[in-house]
Each structure stands twice: as structure tokens, then as C-alpha cells.
Specification:
alpha+beta, 17 helices, Butyryl-CoA Dehydrogenase, subunit A, domain 2, about 475 residues, Butyryl-CoA Dehydrogenase, subunit A, domain 3, 2 domains, single chain, globular, 6-stranded mixed sheet, binds flavin-adenine dinucleotide, 4-stranded mixed sheet
Length: about 475
């Protein structure tokens, strides 16, 4: 089957999936005034594969078939670097907003490949065969995938089986000859309502008491019993002038409910083997955080570009404090970029796949997230207060006010008021609006919250050489390792 077009992809979303938005059932996500923006944003992923400028990057051939490169399992540093480039290009086409209908699913396919291979060898159960068949199915049919890992979780200090009620983590409630029945809910599931397939995996390591929660599987998005409540809080305004990006580009996150959903065995990749839940959870984030740091780059470029243009428009490009802020924005961007490249170069091989360096990836993600708000502050500072106090599109259209806006809101000579306002609108849209607030939250929590990265950094770095060196310098005799 040839790769799908954007139109074919959009058509495939009209399949009676059960989606609610602001209290109402949505009959067709592609036709909905708000969610339709998200569907069209996701269609970028298909349009870009048809674009002659990107075809070579986005397509590859395997066993005589042309496939989307997102389905290529990374086996070398070069594969990881091309994946990084493809993620950045797709995000750039989305005006710095991640598209995320293949990135996250392919993170799972790579991690699942490694974990299920070990499981199949050890348990003599056909988990790896199932995962490979599923991988072939989504690749050959060019399907879009969402991933639901994060459960609603209830009391964070307790594990799945210790909660006040049993449904704070997704669990199996019935095992049948032909499959399983699952119940529960996942939170924050990005773009699943614009996908064809939803992949589920555990969010954490689990003990034997949590067996019923140790689950990984995939279902079509229109599976019976699967329900989505879409959040309205990732959107922007409707005016393409006042909200140049968020009026056209959107992602949608859902509370994803599994109301006794049946999953046939050939789509089950983990069911009850609690000791493998951690391997799924951690293996997935090893790839997913590499995706995270790959898609940040267009946003960091946008920050630098906005700061430079605003400095120019305001006539302050040469000011010492502005140059200081610009140098920090550039250093921020370059640190994230260099760490991403380093993570690919320092990959390790597991089950024949290249896994980006866990420590370097997590340092990059942590560094990005920890500093994001401070960098937004620099752009806001250079741009000035007009980004939140300026007039609207309507004022530029009203003949009674238009002339005043044009006369008074120009900047440096040559930077007329209309251009200046367009630029300030972009800065507000991304860095001082509800869409901007969404990005701040995304920076901190998406792909795992700040502490998750710190824990991974601590766990991944071998401290023994550093300790031995310090002990040697101090002349301290270390006790024998226990
Ligand atoms: C925009 C966005 C998109 C996302 N997309 C997806 C997606 O597509 N699929 C998906 O599966 N997930 C997705 N996520 C979920 C994301 O991975 C989680 O938000 C993240 O893991 C944090 O979980 P949480 O939101 O439940 O917050 P919590 O885990 O509740 O964190 C809140 C605070 O509690 C702390 N905390 C949590 N547990 C403990 C503990 N045991 N002890 C001490 N402190 C603790 C945290 O460190 C943090 O400070 C997305 C999130 C966002 C914001």
C-alpha cells in the first residue's frame, strides 16, 4: 500500500470515534471548529511526506516497500540523527508546535522491540512476534499513533494496587480465550483523537501485587468502550492576526477512558508479567525524551528570531543588556542541540537497536525544562509590554481607530506599526497567552516531570570513578564495595 495523502489521513479519522469536547459529543473531529485545527495540524505529517523538499528525509525503502521513516527502527547513530532531523522538520512545518502522531508511537515501537525480545526469549511467549506483526501493520498501512502511558494515578505516594479504588491505573478485568478486557483511564493523552491507533503501556515499575496493572496493548481509536474527553486548554484564539500560530495549529490532549475495552491477544504486548513493567516504562522514555529534545529546536529558533526582530523593531539591538540576553538565548539553544547530537553519538546497542545515551538525553531535557521560563522572560523583556496591551485585529480594521494604531505604534524607522504589531502578536501567541502557558507546562511536565529526569540522571551515571578519584586525592581508604 502506498503512503497515504493528507486527505486520505483526514478521511480515516471519520470513523465514529467517541470524542467529547466541552460537554458535547463530537461527530467528526475533522469538521469541528476547534478540534478541526488539530486534525489539520496533524495532517502536516502526511503532507510533508509528499513535499519534494522532504521526501528523501521522510521516506525510506524496506524490503522493496516505501515506508515513512518514522517506522524505521534506529540501528546506528546516523539513524538517530536523521530521526532527529525529521522530527525537527515536521515540527518546523507545524510552526514550532510538535505534530506528534508518529513520533511518540515510534518511540514505543523501538522500546517495545527491545523489551519484548527479552520477554519472548525468557518466557517463551510470542510477545516479540506480536509486536513485530503490529509494527508491520502500522508501517504498511501508514497509520497515525497516539500513546497513553500516564495513568490518572490517584495518590502519587501509592502504587496501583494500593489506591483507594482499583481504577486509578488501567488494569485487566477479564482474560478470555481470544483476548482481554481492560478498564481504567489515562490522562494527558496527546493527539490520540487524531490518530488511527492508540498504544498503551505502563507508567512505572510494578511489583507482583500490581500484576493486573502490568499491561501493554494497542487498539484502534474507534474501539468499542474507548472514550476521549478532550481538553480545551491547549488552544488559542480564532484571529490569524492576533494569534498567528494558535489560530491554525493545535494539539489536543485527552482524558482517555477504557470502559471495558476488548483487546485481542495479538495486540497484547504485556499482560501480568509485572517484572517487565519497568522495562517498558523506562525503555519508552529513553526514546521519548530523545524525541522531546529533538522537537524543541524549532521553538528555540523561534525564541531567538523573535528576540532579534523585537530588539530591532524597538531600536535596542545594540544595547548591552539585549546582547547579553541574546547570547543566553543562543547558548540555551546550542546547548540543547549539542546535547541531542551527543546523545545520538553516545548511543548504546540493545537487541540490535541504537538507544540514545540515557544520561545525556535526560540532562538535555532537564536543562531545557529547568530554563524554559527564564528564556521566555528574556523574549518578553526585549519585546515590551505591548505584547499584552496592544490593540486587536478589529482595531486595525475599524476606520475610526486604524489610523491611530498605524500612526502611533511604529518602531525604529523602517519598522512600521503593522509589521511591529504582527511580530508582537506572534510573541504574545507563543510566549504570553494561554497557548504560551500551555507551552510552559509542556516544557515542565511532558515526557516526564523535572524530578523524573533527575532520578534518571542519578541512576544512569556511574559515580565510582569520581568517588575513587576524590578518595585518592584525599588519601582516604575506601571500605571494600559491599
Ligand atoms: C502537554 C502535555 C502532553 C502530554 N502528553 C502525553 C502523552 O501523549 N501520553 C502520555 O502518556 N502522557 C503525556 N503527558 C503526561 C506527562 O508525562 C506527565 O504530565 C508527567 O509524567 C507528570 O505526571 P502528572 O502530570 O500526573 O504529574 P504528577 O506526577 O502528579 O506530578 C506533580 C508533582 O508531583 C511530584 N510527584 C509525583 N509523584 C511523586 C512521588 N511519588 N513522590 C514525590 N513527588 C511526586 C512530581 O515530581 C511533580 O512535582 C503529557 C503531559 C503534558 C503536560
Amino acid at each position: 500500500m502506498p503512503l497515504r495523502t493528507a486527505a486520505q489521513y483526514l478521511e480515516s479519522l471519520r470513523d465514529d470515534r467517541l470524542v467529547y469536547y466541552r460537554g458535547e459529543r463530537v461527530a467528526d473531529v475533522t469538521a469541528h471548529p476547534e478540534l478541526g485545527k488539530g486534525a489539520r495540524h496533524c495532517a502536516i505529517d502526511y503532507a510533508i511526506a509528499d513535499d519534494p523538499r522532504h521526501r528523501d528525509l521522510v521516506r525510506y525503502t524496506e524490503e522493496g516497500r516505501e515506508l515513512n521513516r518514522f517506522y524505521k527502527l534506529p540501528r546506528t547513530t546516523e539513524d538517530l540523527l536523521r530521526r532527529r532531523e525529521m522530527i525537527a522538520e515536521t515540527t518546523r512545518a507545524g510552526r514550532a508546535l510538535i505534530v506528534l502522531i508518529r513520533e511518540i508511537g515510534s518511540d514505543f515501537l523501538a522500546a517495545g522491540h527491545i523489551v519484548t525480545r527479552a520477554m519472548q526469549e525468557r518466557l517463551k511467549a510470542p510477545y516479540h512476534d506480536r509486536l513485530r506483526a503490529y509494527h508491520r501493520y502500522v508501517a504498511e498501512n501508514d497509520l497515525a499513533m497516539g500513546v497513553a502511558q500516564t495513568d490518572v494515578k490517584g495518590d502519587r505516594s501509592r502504587g496501583p494496587s494500593e489506591q483507594e479504588h482499583p481504577d486509578y491505573y488501567v488494569r485487566v478485568v477479564d482474560r478470555q480465550t481470544d483476548g482481554i478486557v481492560v478498564r481504567g483511564a489515562k490522562a494527558h493523552t496527546t493527539n490520540a483523537i487524531f490518530a488511527n491507533e492508540l498504544i498503551v503501556l505502563p507508567p512505572r515499575a510494578m511489583g507482583e501485587a500490581d500484576r493486573e496493572y502490568a499491561l501493554s496493548f494497542a487498539v484502534p481509536v474507534n474501539a468499542r468502550g474507548l472514550k476521549f474527553i478532550a481538553s480545551p486548554f491547549s488552544g488559542g484564539g480564532d484571529s490569524p492576526i492576533d494569534h498567528p500560530v494558535s489560530s491554525r495549529h493545535k494539539v489536543a490532549d485527552t482524558l482517555t477512558i477504557f470502559d471495558d475495552v476488548f483487546v485481542p491477544w495479538d495486540r497484547v504486548f504485556l499482560c501480568g508479567e509485572a517484572s517487565y513493567a519497568g522495562a517498558f516504562a523506562l525503555g519508552f522514555v529513553e526514546y521519548h525524551r530523545f524525541t522531546a529534545i529533538s522537537y524543541k529546536l524549532p521553538l528555540l529558533d523561534l525564541m531567538i528570531g523573535c528576540a532579534l526582530l523585537a530588539a530591532d523593531a524597538n531600536g535596542i539591538a545594540g544595547a548591552g543588556h539585549v546582547r547579553d540576553k541574546l547570547s543566553r538565548l543562543i547558548a540555551y539553544r546550542e546547548t540543547v542541540r549539542a546535547l541531542t547530537v551527543a546523545a545520538a553519538h553516545e548511543c548504546t546497542l540493545r537487541a540490535g537497536l541504537a538507544v540514545p545515551s540515557t544520561t545525556v538525553t535526560n540532562i538535555a531535557k532537564q536543562y531545557f525544562a529547568e530554563n524554559y521560563h527564564a528564556m521566555v522572560q528574556k523574549v518578553q523583556d526585549i519585546a515590551g509590554g505591548l505584547i499584552v496591551t496592544g490593540p486587536s485585529e478589529e482595531d486595525l480594521k475599524n476606520p475610526e481607530t486604524k489610523a491611530y494604531v498605524e500612526h502611533y505604534l511604529g518602531g525604529k524607522a523602517g519598522f512600521g506599526s503593522v509589521n511591529r504589531l504582527k511580530l508582537l502578536n506572534l510573541i504574545r501567541d507563543y510566549f504570553a497567552s494561554s497557548f504560551g502557558g500551555y507551552h510552559e507546562l509542556l516544557a515542565i511536565h511532558a515526557e516526564g516531570s523535572l524530578e523524573a529526569q533527575k532520578i534518571t540522571i542519578l541512576r544512569g551515571f556511574d559515580t565510582s570513578d569520581a568517588v575513587a578519584f576524590a578518595a585518592e586525592c584525599a588519601g582516604v581508604d575506601l571500605p571494600p564495595a559491599r
